[in-house]
TrEMBL record:
InterPro entries: ACMSD, Amidohydro-rel, Metal_Hydrolase. Gene3D superfamilies: Metal-dependent hydrolases. Pfam families: Amidohydro_2 (PF04909). The keyword Transmembrane helix does not apply. The lineage of its organism: Bacteria, Bacillati, Actinomycetota, Actinomycetes, Kitasatosporales. It comes from Streptomyces phaeoluteigriseus. SUPFAM superfamilies: Metallo-dependent hydrolases. Residues 6-330 form the Amidohydrolase-related domain. It comes from the Bacteria. Keywords: Lyase. This is Amidohydrolase. Coiled coil: none annotated.
Length: 332
């Protein structure tokens, strides 16, 4: 039987979460930082762009109609990264993840044969992360979505070991999707904050997980990297060279960095068929999943067409189109 077409990179917008945090201590400062990082020109475009797409991110019938138009059978729905709110204190953070998890689960429950969901955990409060993961799974969600870092903490921080352990034990999916880039005002023109910032953040976060040995300690972690893993997969040779040439680079992980790409999953959203072919080559056709970034303008309206443009062998095409994701979702 042919596997369904599964898009693992699709978002939901939750206005109730933004209403919850509005006016809370730290919220205004976080918005100001986001504004500095993006720049005024980007913010002027972002507002209308999101407003045009609110319905398909909030209304299940509109989402399903859009999926039908794209030829997508199933979406793995993750909260808009704007809902992370890693600035929030512990009490507010708990309210955020509970509301987000419950609202996302409610949205997906309206079409359970076509929508699966991911929740959030407060990375800024590592001691609360396992509880948040458990809450997401209790709602029937398939796992969690995380950013590339939290303020003052990289994903290699030992404080996250309990989270990786529990995610591995439960088979939960962990979707790595950056929000914001710490290069700040260097990227505040021409939407460099996204076009350059997002793949940079992906590469940095994945490098922390690889070089620190997190993936040695948690080999069964089901981690999906958005945006094809950013710059790392196409430049992994430099990481391998550093690992073999320098004692400091090779101290934390047991194997060449390139070998860990075959332990990770990547979405197909790279906007270039040749880059997608290279991603399949270095990670393996069994480790790439269809992704669209639905419904944002930095995504693709035709994820299957973008995959077809890579001219993969037929078996690889169908694995990426849905076979790999179907197997992964059966494991969660």
């Amino acid at each position: 039987m042919t596997a369904p077409t599964i898009d693992v990179h699709a978002h939901i917008l939750l206005p109730e979460v933004e209403a919850l945090v509005d006016g809370r201590p730290g919220h205004a400062e976080a918005r100001a930082l986001d504004a500095r990082r993006n720049g005024p020109a980007a913010l002027a475009v972002n507002g209308p762009m999101v407003r045009e797409r609110i319905r398909v991110m909030t209304d299940v019938s509109a989402r399903l109609a859009a999926m039908d138009a794209q030829g997508v059978d199933v979406q793995l729905v993750s909260p808009s990264p704007s809902h992370y709110h890693y600035w929030a204190d512990e009490e507010t953070a708990e309210k955020v993840y509970r509301l987000t998890n419950e609202a996302t689960a409610g949205h997906c429950s309206a079409a359970p044969d076509r929508l699966r969901g991911l929740g959030l955990v407060p990375l800024q409060h590592p001691d609360a992360a396992v509880g948040a993961l458990e809450h997401a799974l209790e709602q029937g969600l398939s796992g969690i979505e995380i950013s590339s870092h939290a303020p003052g903490r990289e994903l290699s921080d030992p404080a996250y070991e309990p989270l990786w352990t529990r995610a591995e034990e439960t088979g939960a999916l962990v979707f790595l999707h950056p929000f914001g880039c710490t290069l700040d005002e260097r990227l505040d023109q021409w939407y460099l904050s996204n076009s350059v910032g997002q793949p940079t953040e992906n590469a940095v976060a994945l490098s922390h997980l690889i070089f620190s040995g997190v993936l040695d300690r948690h080999p069964a972690l089901n981690l999906i990297a958005a945006h094809g893993g950013g710059y790392l997969p196409t430049h992994i040779g430099r990481s391998d060279h550093a690992w073999s040439a320098r004692s400091d680079a090779g101290a934390g992980c047991a194997h060449p960095p390139s070998s860990y790409l075959k332990r990770l999953y990547f979405d197909s959203l790279v906007h270039d068929p040749q880059v997608l072919r290279e991603l399949v080559r270095v990670a393996g056709a069994d480790r790439v999943l269809l992704g669209s970034d639905f419904p944002f303008d930095m995504g693709t309206d035709d994820p299957v067409g973008a995959l077809r443009a890579a001219r993969l062998p037929d078996a690889d095409f169908h694995a990426v189109r849905g076979g790999n994701a179907a197997a992964l979702l059966r494991k969660d």
